[in-house]
Amino acid sequence: MARYLTTTLPYVNADPHVGHALEFVQADFLARLWRAQGEDVFFSTGTDEHGQKIFEAAQKAGQEVQAYVDRYAAEFKKLPQALDLSNDAFIRTTDETHVRAAEEMWRRCTSAGDIYKKAYEGLYCVGCEKFLTEKELVEGKCGVHGTEPVLLKEENYFFRFSKYQQSLLEYLARPDCIIPDWRREEAIAFVKDGLEDFSISRESARLSWGIPVPGDTAQVMYVWFDALTNYISTLGWPTDEKGNFQKFWMEGKTLQMAGKDQVRFQSLMWQAMLLSAGIKNTDQVFYHGFITSGGQKMSKSLGNVLNPFDLIEAYGADALRYTLLRHVSPFDDSDITEETIREHYTAHLTNGLGNLVARVMKLAEDYLPHSVELTLADERLDPTFIEKADAFRFSEAMDLVFEKVAAADSFMTEREPYKGIKSGDAVEREEAKKNIEDLVHRLANIGVHLASAMPRTAAAIASAIRKNQKPENLFPRLA
After folding, report:
1. What is the pLDDT of residue 20?
2. Same domain, 251 and 344
3. What are the Cα distances from residue 204, in Å, to 154, 209, 221, 344?
4. Do 429 and 343 lie in a common domain?
5. Which of 349, 368, 431, 438 has the most CB atoms lying inside 10 A of its own CB?
6. Structural domain range at position 193
7. Distance CA 47, CA 261 (A)
8. What is the DSSP string of 151-184?
């Protein structure tokens, strides 16, 4: 089966943080696991580079906007490499191919009669990059950012969101279109409360940083209308010269990963745009929770922002991937500090997995005449592991792997092959040798299960088994 998988595109108005790494790693885990099962996967990520927030951030920094986004886009482009992502594409919304796709999306929605122009006055939140309705205000402030919106009056183009109320309810009736299900219920409640047409352009005299509206250079596209199109522009839509759009979007199974605050954008606005343009809706959107640090939202002023590059330098990419997959709730908010990462590293990686690999492979190197010949059973993934992963229960899937680690530790403790192999009794020595071989088989299967989550560690385990040698410490002790 052809599978398409994409993250949301982070805004390039600040450095990457560990929340970005969470979504990237979750997506990569699935992409690698699906490929391991023979699926044909297209995995995309990238950067969102238009809009008022970026324009204002560049002005505040005293930089030309393009230079500003180029600098931050370069930082985000380093993150997939640092995290060992297996993405097939990295799209920037300033890419010319994307700009042409956004223009075509505009034209198709216009042809469907879904774009019109009108004067509008309303309260605008720069953080959300949209006009707010009364139900989105909390004591006169944005319910998301807690800031006072700005009163704006201008003539904009609008999208006939209200036209698609019934169609969206039919789409949302599919039980698997949103995971977890309570986010789907949230989306249904929002639609049933009544949809209002939303502004999809800004006056270029006020905001010049955006894609010009086709046929009207006095307006630029609303950043969300532009950015959402990336999910198909990255596949080569609309020209589709390589056939990726047809193969992975129209004929394949599509999955979008997003944060819990994205439900209205990903599962409502974007789906309405697709309906208007006559394109298949997204099959499924998975919404994850947020990461807090020390019980508070991460912010520079509090000094609790976790920089993924710093964490990777201190602990390694696989250790960060391990923490994000096993010790972060897939669906709810989770709190992480560097202290907890350090504790997990020492307890579960250094003293757990790393120690097991070192002990087993040292015994194999010293007492087995040649490398253990692996079997198909060693390379077989546990069906429950696959089931947990496909249900986005990443932490439970990782728990299963580390249950295998614990079981191997228990086996070694009970059988004591490190004693038996030195016995003067030939029968005991032979039994100990078989136990060492059994442990190597167990290690091989652990490595297979870790390949999607901790690719470097899995590769190191596989190499050690092939060479029949103890590897360098996988997780060195911290100073």
Report:
1. 94
2. no
3. 11, 8, 9, 50
4. yes
5. 349
6. 2-288
7. 18
8. EEEEEEEEE-GGGGHHHHHHHHTSTTSEESHHHH
Q: What does the pLDDT look like over 417-472, one tens digit per residue?
A: 999 999 999 999 999 999 999 999 999 999 999 999 999 999 999 999 999 999 99
Q: What is the pLDDT of residue 53?
A: 87
* The model scores a pTM over 0.85: yes
Cα→Cα distances 123→129, 132, 134, 150, 151, Å: 11, 6, 9, 5, 5
Show the tokens assigned to 107: 């034209």
Q: Could you give the C-alpha distances from 422 to 115, 225, 365, 408, in angstroms and in order? A: 81, 70, 14, 21
Taking 90 as the threshold, does the pLDDT of residue 149 lie above it? no
- For the stretch 337-348, pLDDT in tens is 999 999 999 999
Tell me if residue 221 falls in helix, strand or coil.
strand
The partner residues of 407 in beta bridges, in order of sequence, read: none
pLDDT score of 244: 98
Domain membership of residue 474 (yes or no) is: no
Q: How far apart are the first and last CA of the chain?
A: 47
Percent of the chain surpassing pLDDT 70: 99
End-of-domain residue from the set 230, 255, 288: 288
For residue 238, cis peptide bond before it (omega within 30 degrees of 0): yes
Average pLDDT of the chain is 94
Q: For residue 222, with 0-12 CB atoms within 10 Å meaning exposed, 13-18 middle and 19 or more buried, which class applies?
A: buried
At residue 434, the pLDDT reads 97
Main-chain dihedrals φ then ψ at residue 258, nearest 5 degrees: -160, 160
**324 and 216 in one domain?**
no
**Is 478 inside a domain boundary?**
no
Produce one character per residue of 187-196: b if its CB has 16 or more CB atoms within 10 Å, e if not: bbebbeeebe
Active site positions, annotated:
17, 20, 125, 128, 142, 145, 297, 300
393 & 342 share domain:
yes
Instruction: Please compute the mean of the pLDDT values over residues 395-404 and round it to a whole number.
Output: 98
Beta strand 150-159 pairing with 115-125: antiparallel
Could you tell me if 244 and 42 are in contact, meaning their C-beta atoms sit under 8 angstroms apart? yes
Q: Are residues 338 and 369 in the same domain?
A: yes
Per the DSSP assignment, residues forming a β-bridge with 296 are 293
For 197, the 3-state DSSP assignment is coil
Same domain, 349 and 203: no
Residue with tokens 């602990």: 315
Tell me how many domains the chain contains: 2
- In this predicted model, what pLDDT tens digit does every residue of 115-142 receive, in sequence order? 999 988 778 787 777 777 777 788 788 8
* pLDDT of amino acid 44: 98
Tell me if 196 sits within 8 A of 162, measured CB to CB: yes
Please name the amino acid found at residue 311.
L
Domain's final residue, options 271, 288, 305: 288
